[in-house]
Amino acid sequence: MQTIFSTADVPQAEAFDYWVDAIRTIYRHDVEAVGDRRDWYGEMKAGSLGDVTLATWQAAPWISRCLIGNGDLLLQLPSSCTAVEFADGGFEHGRKNLCLFDTGKPHASRSLEPIDRVAVRIPRDTLGQRIRLTREIVNRPVPLQGDAVLLDAFVRELVRIGPSALSPTAVAVVREQMIDLTAVVLANLVGDMPRLGAAGRFGTLKLRVLIESQLTNPDIDAQSIAAGAGISERHANRLLALEGTSIRRLLMERRLNKCREMIEDPRHMHRSTSDIASLYGFRNLSHFTRVFKGRFGLSPSEYRSAFDPVGH
Q1: What does the alpha-carbon distance between residue 109 and residue 82 come to, in Å, rounded to a whole number?
Q2: For site-directed labelling of 35, which of 121, 146, 188, 282 has its Cα 20 to 30 A away?
Q3: In this predicted structure, what is the pLDDT of residue 224?
Q4: Chain segment 51-110, per-residue pLDDT in tens
């Protein structure tokens, strides 16, 4: 797991503001927050399984209000206790339950103890292809029992190993298993049957593995990727459409995410953003800057500045 940000090397007087700014940048949330600035600390680590992100964070207790989020779904595992309030009700999320948060829905939260949390960020369309995202499933506690115990153990073990230790094939397989298991756990709440579709998923899996293996190849195109999976480009895009994407969109998304990860990583501060863009197949810097800002809300240089407060 890669350290995304930490207040360890930030002056104490600036630590809380640094944390809030980082949360706003990473999750694209409009957040208002209150915390003890005298003793504030925080650290976040993350690793990706394609478009699914694992994250861990530790921090001092705080009170926050999220007005606008990015709309992704955040599966939070049993952890330190937090009280959450929505316009239509609230609940406490703690050590005996997990929950699926809709980050696009305005809410307020209050940490009842120091934060020690593990979560999985899942695109809404991706999980929505497996199960209907109803009020009975989203923004409510799920008891840690039965299949939920397996899901909790599965995610925590993956966090321990770290996605970066896996091969592209393993990443694609584990991603599918995690989303399927999440859908099964949530479906149990309403007695529903998730749509797993093993045959279609195998074709999608092959496409994802091929795309991951070609992210640094500037000459790769949709037709070649589909051919590598042994199917037509039309059929490949039909399979990916079930997950709300296409070959070209998925290739662009994965390249942008890889560039973002390198820009955030202190180990690559010596690399220029143009070098990083070139590494992942972007030949035109202005095009890269435009699509990066369209995806993350900041230009590559602005994004780097957000993760390099001391100005390296």
Answers
A1: 7
A2: 121
A3: 92
A4: 888 989 888 888 888 766 556 788 888 888 888 887 777 777 788 888 888 877 777 888
* Closest CA relative to residue 182, chosen from 171, 195, 170, 169: 195
Please give the C-alpha separations between residue 244 and each of 172, 274, 296, in angstroms, as whole numbers.
Answer: 17, 30, 19
Beta strands in 87-237 (DSSP E): 89-93, 97-102, 107-111, 115-122, 141-143
State the pLDDT confidence band at 281, using cuts at 50, 70 and 90. very high
How many Cα atoms are found within 13 Å in the side-chain-facing hemisphere of 2? 17
Q: Which band of pLDDT confidence, cut at 50, 70 and 90, is reported for residue 260?
A: very high
The answer to whether the CB of 240 falls within 8 A of the CB of 252 is no
The DSSP H or E segment spanning 232 is none
Task: Give CA–CA dist 142/138, Å, rounded.
Answer: 10
Axis-axis angle for helices 247-264, 285-296 (nearest 10): 90
* Counted domains in the chain: 1
Domain that holds residue 49: 1-164
- Is 16 a member of any domain? yes
| CA dihedral (101, 178, 25, 71) positive or negative | negative
Find the CATH number of the domain harbouring 49: 2.60.120.10
What is the rounded distance in angstroms from the CA atom of residue 245 to the CA atom of residue 234? Answer: 13
Domain assignment present for residue 31? The answer is: yes
Burial class (CB in 10 A: 0-12, 13-18, 19+), 193: exposed
